[in-house]
Amino acid sequence: MKSFIKISDLFKTYDKVEAVRGVTMDVSKGEMFGLVGPDGAGKTTCIRIMCGLLGFDSGLVEMMGENISTHKKHIQQSIGYLSQKYSMYGDLSIDENIEFFAEIHNVRDYKDRRNELLEFTRLINFRDRLADQLSGGMKQKLALACALIHKPKILFLDEPTTGVDPVSRRDFWKILSGLLKDGITIVMTTPYLDEAERCNRVAMMNKGKLIALDTPANIKAEITEDIIEIVCSPIRTAFELIRTRTSFGVQMFGDRIDVVMNNSREDYPQIESLLTQNDVLISSNRKITPSLENVFIHKIKDAS
Asked: Tens digits of per-residue pLDDT, 145-190?
């Protein structure tokens, strides 16, 4: 299958900082593709380059079979972009914002499409409300409607659910699932690795480089060691004890820690003894399936 988006050996430098270092990846038509990684990993830079909003030092970027360097304007007619920064006009209503973006994209008969999008995003009952009066989740839905008014073939989303409440995040994902059924290709960045598990494929980035690219299931399968989740208190004391006094990999997630070990049956008693001898109360422990978070931290640790 020919790649709908193709990036080869991409480099981008800001002053002396290498934001993107030799990234090569492809996205298939109709795929939901996730770019994940911490702040500064190069995710947003890659998105902006693919949208034709940012130049690059070297490499090749092709969108729908066309070179972004020579066919930028034509390509931009077929893409939608929802940026990290909220860009709606607060003193315009929902209807007026969508109308404005329709005119930018030279969409003349947009009213039926607007109604369709308002129904789709469940904003139809709020169409006269000013954008400044919307909740965070509703603002993101409005921004999505504006990005879709011209029926793009590719939709770029840069951390679309950051700062949005859990209920709105769930609603947003339902909307994205509907878009996939319509055949739209979605490329998104997210700092939430649990969200990335919903993608068809995921590219993990760190310090401008790709460290993994595959389906979430295949990436998680790369960890062959046992992962034991321990709920205990005080959690930070437990984390520091395991980090500084054992050779096991340890990760802290809220009120739990995940410990990576070769053989949990043989190795866990060592952890249990260390914690109890230092007045750490263990509430529970269980063997868990690796998450993308486990793999990401594990890969960074191995690379360091």
From this structure: 999 999 999 999 998 888 778 888 888 888 888 889 888 999 999 8
pTM for the whole thing? 0.86
- Helix residue ranges per DSSP H, 15-110: 43-50, 72-76, 94-104
Give how far Cα 110 sits from Cα of 98, 105, 107, 114, 176, Å: 9, 10, 6, 6, 21
Name the residue range of residue 60's domain.
5-219
Name the domain boundary from 197, 219, 241.
219
Q: Do 152 and 273 share a structural domain? A: no
CA distance linking residue 14 with residue 21, whole number of Å: 12
Average pLDDT, the chain: 91
Residues 32 and 114 in one domain: yes
Distance from C-alpha of 54 to C-alpha of 276, rounded to nearest angstrom = 54
Output the six-digit token pair for 128. 């006269």
Residue recorded with tokens 């437990």: 238
Q: How far apart are CA 213 and CA 196, in angstroms?
A: 12
Helix 235-245 and helix 264-277, axial crossing angle in degrees, nearest 10 = 120
Burial class (CB in 10 A: 0-12, 13-18, 19+), 210: buried
